[in-house]
Design brief:
Distance between the termini of chain B: 41 Å
Distance between the termini of chain A: 35 Å
Strand content of chain A: over 45%
Shape of chain B: globular
Helix content of chain A: under 10%
Largest interface: A-B, 21 and 22 residues
Oligomer: heterodimer
Number of helices of chain B: 0
Helix content of chain B: under 10%
Largest sheet of chain A: 7 strands, mixed
Number of helices of chain A: 0
Order of helices and strands of chain A: EEEEEEEEEEE
Number of strands of chain A: 11
């Protein structure tokens, strides 16, 4: 009953440090996504993937990188962290059309850059 | 392109009051429509969905009807509870956009006893 699992849940980074947010899903979904949510704001798409080996940029990709070597995993890499990257990050997955295109979210990763 | 416009908040209601959160959309084809709920400190959870015109999605006393003629998917609940306090997001997805999901900006609801 795991669904989409993200780690870590909380992290404090210093400016210039790098880190990877891990995301794994056990529903065999083709599509995976990374969103960020700034305080009091909606969701912004960072990167997405339509299947293993395929990734593409979303609305706000600068400062981030992703990879999709397996169907299950979709890590998000933050390079040279900046205060503007302080946010809550959500990983999500979806089976895609026509299987039923509901999107399922992880519980979020709270990141603070100081 | 596709987009979702949601009623701005925050909304504050007394317990047992009637709730409406407006949502309208723009889409090129025939989208599926969703309402997601986000409780404090948690991720978004699917509340209800509708996949074609005139469908009504319902869950936990919440309802929304897919109105193609008015491009709307308003969320309603007849009697809100304190436990309904959360942020509500309207969203759409359609097959001709590569399974992209478009979210509204969210509406914060606070229910007071």
């Amino acid at each position: 009953n795991a669904g989409v699992t993200q780690t870590p849940k909380f992290r404090i980074l210093k400016i210039g440090q790098s880190m990877t947010l891990q995301c794994t899903q056990d529903m065999n979904h083709n599509y995976m996504y990374w969103y960020r949510q700034d305080p009091g704001m909606g969701l912004k798409l960072i990167y997405y993937s339509v299947g293993a080996g395929i990734t593409d940029k979303g609305e706000v990709p600068n400062g981030y990188n992703v990879s999709r070597s397996t169907t299950e995993d979709f890590p998000l890499r933050l390079e040279l962290a900046a205060p503007s990257q302080t946010s809550v990050y959500f990983c999500a997955s979806s089976p895609g059309w026509p299987a039923g295109n509901t999107i399922y979210f992880g519980e979020g990763s709270w990141l603070t850059v100081v | 392109g596709d987009s979702v416009t949601q009623m701005e908040g925050p909304v504050t209601l007394s317990e047992e009051a009637f709730l409406t959160i407006n949502c309208t959309y723009t889409a090129t084809g025939y989208p599926s429509l969703f309402w997601y709920v986000q409780y404090p400190g948690e991720g978004l959870q699917l509340l209800l969905k509708a996949t074609k015109a005139d469908d009504k999605g319902s869950n936990k006393g919440f309802e929304a009807t897919y109105r193609k003629e008015t491009t709307s998917f308003h969320l309603e609940k007849g009697s809100v509870q304190v436990s309904d306090s959360a942020v509500y997001f309207c969203a759409l997805s359609e097959s001709n956009t590569g399974n992209q999901f478009y979210f509204g900006t969210g509406t914060s609801l606070t229910v007071i006893p």
